[in-house]
Amino acid sequence: MTFKKTLVALGIGLAMTGAANAATYDLGEFSGISVIASTVTTAKGAFSDTWNFSLAGDSFTVGAVFDLPSLLGLHYNISSLSAQLFSSSGALVVDFDDCFLSSKDFKFSLGTLVADSYSLLVSGNATGWAGGRYELKMTAKQIAAPVPEPQTLLMMLSGLGLLGAVARRRRLG
Length: 173
Known about the structure:
Blueprint: H1 2-17, E1 21-30, E2 33-42, E3 45-55, E4 59-67, E5 70-71, E6 74-75, E7 78-87, E8 92-95, E9 106-113, E10 117-126, E11 132-142, H2 150-172
Parallel strand pairs: 1-3
Antiparallel strand pairs: 2-11, 3-10, 4-9, 4-11, 5-6, 7-8, 7-10
């Protein structure tokens, strides 16, 4: 009976060894200029990390995820590194893997994002004897809404006034 329990415990332990690692990180709301740099170490095996953030306004963003293969003699490695950005509706916004600057160990994207909540999914397979290590770097700069100059407003109002005067003259004459 004890032998059976030991075998069952060993089987459960081996099954858990191959289980996927998953973590969720909340970066909060980005406004103005925001810079994020974070290094993550993951246990050996498949992983899928989610980075949640929101933008207070339309922003120009640059994001990069890259494999860090070693640290102080420890062997880290990630195969099949992948990164995708999803909107709050779950729609795929950016697939970092498709960017022309991306490689198997480096994922990169840049562009303008509208104010919304986003989830960045970073996944891969940690194959180093110490697991895997990657770094996420992201910069977001909020784009200021254009404000018309006073001269522009004056010109617009003058033009509307002239159009009104022409329309009135045609109606009377």
